[in-house]
């Protein structure tokens, strides 16, 4: 056991399927085993989660992978050194269209059905047709300017030669996605669970593809905290990471994931039905009310026995995210300092945590918890 | 500038984004007969950004806990966007602390409560601070631009000295002459010199 500089910890999260590691670490007592008293603070927006982290109201948070980079560069916020010592999950997002757009795609391409994962070029004729008729552009939503959702959507559209000149890209909070899709305010969205499954279960949408079909095994959510917090509380940060790593390892077993879905459905967490939380955790991508689900084994991935790299904040991953930000035009007039990414992505802390885990015979405890 | 004088005296349009209708009424009554006019009340919607564009509010007021904050966040990524002060209200006591973090930079200010008697002074302060910040930012940008143009001119001068074997005075005067002859800025002439001397084997410039 290590001695903690601080044991009462406020952890911010947004209620999504991939907040599983935080919720499981809390509910299964992994934080407690390390002497941490963690309070999970549910947030309504990424911007406010970030501001609270910057202000020290929350000590650490589940963040969108590009967010620590954006904070450290001062994009949309005063420059604030935020670091990420650990990746919490890979994949997890999906692109869902309204039933109406689905029918438009079929009609414009003279198809009777589409194959999954849907190829972006099927949108070309829809875009062209709308332009010719003088109709509104298609409107697709994602959750935050500095999110993989945003870059994945752009990347997928780009594969068919489409860009934000051809479709409108807007930001919508996840909680409003399904409602807006139903009311026709948007034609589609890229969002994390449980919102894709929720749209399909409600019979208002079709999930055309998952983020795994666009980028294989890219970091989605990370643990973010202030560089200053780490400097003052290095052992506490190691303990938080160790507990989260244990939770991720626990989530590797598919049967455990159903149990996780049950816990997460509670009001204080996702406050949603099991039938929209469980599928993606179990590797099932709901597609459409009248169609069979699709198997996507790594739809939500938190850990992998043979892939130690899942949770490691490798520098190449950070550099790759910076490239995505560049391509989205977010780094114009923004100078990246030398060796910038190694100040944000911190595999060194992750490796210390792994040594700690190995030394602290925690394996028995994991088995007991199972 | 027009915007600044407007912030000083004229009526200011407020875009209030709040789902709590009781608080909306409170704020509206607190601002009755003041220079602040609540133009639009929006609870939520994809059209929010379009409305911001159409209304051109002078201030945006939003609950810090509103999911719509993320929609506003995308304003920063629109390059043509004209920054506006954003005042965030919160009923949670600990959010006073956010103030410390945001007041130093971006146009957002959190206040701890919406006591009607405090609303007007809070908005006044936000407008004043925003104006101050914008001025500071403009000054910084100006200074940065001046420094950059001096650097560019220096670089062009050095290139002329190296590749055209001019002395410093000759290099400077040849650029100044080119600027006067063509009615161009020195900086623009310097840029042409640099791109020309770096990319071309030609010997006949200036």
Task: Report what the structure shows.
The complex is a heterodimer of chains A (370) and B (206). Chain A has helices at 20-27, 30-33, 46-55, 67-73, 99-109, 124-132, 148-158, 174-183, 195-201, 211-214, 227-232, 234-250, 254-264, 274-281, 315-327, 341-344, 347-359, 363-369; strands at 8-13, 37-42, 60-64, 82-91, 93-98, 139-142, 168-171, 188-192, 205-210, 219-226, 284-285, 294-295, 300-301. Chain A has 18 helices and 13 strands. Chain A is globular, with a radius of gyration of 20 Å. Chain A is of the alpha/beta class and 370 residues long. Chain A starts with 7 loop residues before the first strand and ends with a helix. In chain A, the strands form 3 sheets. Chain A has a 6-stranded mixed β-sheet, with helices on both faces. A 5-stranded mixed β-sheet of chain A has the order 7-6-8-5-9, with helices on both faces. In chain A, helix 8 (174-183) packs parallel to helix 9 (195-201). Chain A has 2 domains: 8-90 and 217-369, D-Maltodextrin-Binding Protein, domain 2; 93-207, Periplasmic binding protein-like II (D-Maltodextrin-Binding Protein, domain 2), CATH 3.40.190. In chain A, strand 6, helix 7 (148-158) and strand 7 form a beta-alpha-beta unit. Chain B folds into 2 domains: 2-140, Rossmann fold; 148-199, Winged helix-like DNA-binding domain superfamily/Winged helix DNA-binding domain (Arc Repressor Mutant, subunit A). The longest helix of chain B is centred in the C-terminal third of the chain and has 48 residues, at 116-163. Chain A binds chain B through residues 44-48, 51-52, 54-57, 74-80, 139, 141, 143-145, 170-176, 180, 185-186, 330, 332, and chain B through 44-47, 49, 64-74, 76-77, 79, 94-95, 97-102, 104-106, 108, 110.
Give a topology summary.
The complex is a heterodimer of chains A (370) and B (206).
Chain A: E1 8-13, H1 20-27, H2 30-33, E2 37-42, H3 46-55, E3 60-64, H4 67-73, E4 82-91, E5 93-98, H5 99-109, H6 124-132, E6 139-142, H7 148-158, E7 168-171, H8 174-183, E8 188-192, H9 195-201, E9 205-210, H10 211-214, E10 219-226, H11 227-232, H12 234-250, H13 254-264, H14 274-281, E11 284-285, E12 294-295, E13 300-301, H15 315-327, H16 341-344, H17 347-359, H18 363-369
Parallel strand pairs in A: 1-2, 1-3, 6-7, 6-8
Antiparallel strand pairs in A: 3-10, 4-10, 4-13, 5-8, 5-9, 11-12
Chain B: H1 2-8, E1 12-17, H2 21-30, E2 36-42, H3 48-55, E3 59-63, H4 69-73, E4 86-89, H5 96-103, E5 108-111, H6 116-163, H7 168-182, H8 186-199
Helix pairs in contact in B: 2-6, 6-7, 6-8, 7-8
């Amino acid at each position: 056991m290590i001695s903690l500089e601080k044991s009462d910890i406020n952890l911010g999260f947004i209620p999504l399927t991939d907040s599983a590691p935080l919720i499981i670490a809390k509910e299964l007592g992994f934080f407690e085993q390390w002497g941490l008293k963690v309070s999970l603070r549910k947030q309504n927006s990424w911007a406010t989660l970030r501001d609270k982290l910057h202000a020290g109201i929350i000590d650490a948070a589940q963040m969108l992978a590009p967010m620590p980079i954006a904070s450290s560069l001062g994009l949309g916020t005063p420059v604030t050194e935020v670091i990420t010592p650990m990746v919490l999950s890979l994949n997890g997002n999906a692109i869902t269209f309204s039933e109406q757009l689905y029918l438009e795609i079929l009609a414009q391409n003279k198809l009777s059905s589409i194959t999954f994962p849907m190829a972006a070029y099927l949108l070309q004729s829809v875009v062209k047709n709308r332009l010719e008729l003088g109709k509104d552009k298609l409107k697709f939503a994602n959750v935050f300017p500095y999110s993989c959702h945003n870059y994945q959507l752009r990347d997928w559209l780009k594969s068919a030669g489409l860009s934000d000149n051809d479709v409108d890209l807007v930001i919508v909070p996840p909680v409003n996605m399904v409602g807006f899709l139903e009311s026709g305010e948007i034609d589609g969205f890229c969002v994390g669970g449980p919102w894709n499954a929720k749209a399909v279960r409600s019979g208002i949408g079709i999930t055309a593809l998952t983020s795994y079909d666009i980028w294989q095994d890219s970091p989605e959510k990370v643990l973010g905290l202030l560089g200053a917090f780490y400097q003052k509380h290095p052992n506490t940060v190691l303990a938080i990471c160790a507990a989260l790593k244990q939770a991720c390892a626990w989530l590797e077993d598919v049967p455990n994931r159903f149990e996780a879905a049950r816990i997460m459905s509670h009001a204080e967490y996702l406050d949603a039905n099991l039938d929209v939380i469980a599928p993606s955790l179990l590797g099932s991508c709901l597609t459409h009310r009248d169609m069979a689900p699709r198997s996507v084994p790594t739809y939500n991935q938190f850990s992998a026995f043979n892939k130690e790299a899942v949770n490691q904040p490798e520098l190449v991953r950070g550099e790759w995210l910076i490239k995505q930000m560049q391509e989205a035009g977010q780094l114009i007039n923004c100078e990246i300092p030398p060796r910038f990414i190694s100040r944000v992505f911190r595999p060194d802390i992750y490796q210390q945590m792994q040594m700690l885990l190995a030394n602290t015979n925690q394996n028995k405890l994991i088995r007991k918890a199972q | 500038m027009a915007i600044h004088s407007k912030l000083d005296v004229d009526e200011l349009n407020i875009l209030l984004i709040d789902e709590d209708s009781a608080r909306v009424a409170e704020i509206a009554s607190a601002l009755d007969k003041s220079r602040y006019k609540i133009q639009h009340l929006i609870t939520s919607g994809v059209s929010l950004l379009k409305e911001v564009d159409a209304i051109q509010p002078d201030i945006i007021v939003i609950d810090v806990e509103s999911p719509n904050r993320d929609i506003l966040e995308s304003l920063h990524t629109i390059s043509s966007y004209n920054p506006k002060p954003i005042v965030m209200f919160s009923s949670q006591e600990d959010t006073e602390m956010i103030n410390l973090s945001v007041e130093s930079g971006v146009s957002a200010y959190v206040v701890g409560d919406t006591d009607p008697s405090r609303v007007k002074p809070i908005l006044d302060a936000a407008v004043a601070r925003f104006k101050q910040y914008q001025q500071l930012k403009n000054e910084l940008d100006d200074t940065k631009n001046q420094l950059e143009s001096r650097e560019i001119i220096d670089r062009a001068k050095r290139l002329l000295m190296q590749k055209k074997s001019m002395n410093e005075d000759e290099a400077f005067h040849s650029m100044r002459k080119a600027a006067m002859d063509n009615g161009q800025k020195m900086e623009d002439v310097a840029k042409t010199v640099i791109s020309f001397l770096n990319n071309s084997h030609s010997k006949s410039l200036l």
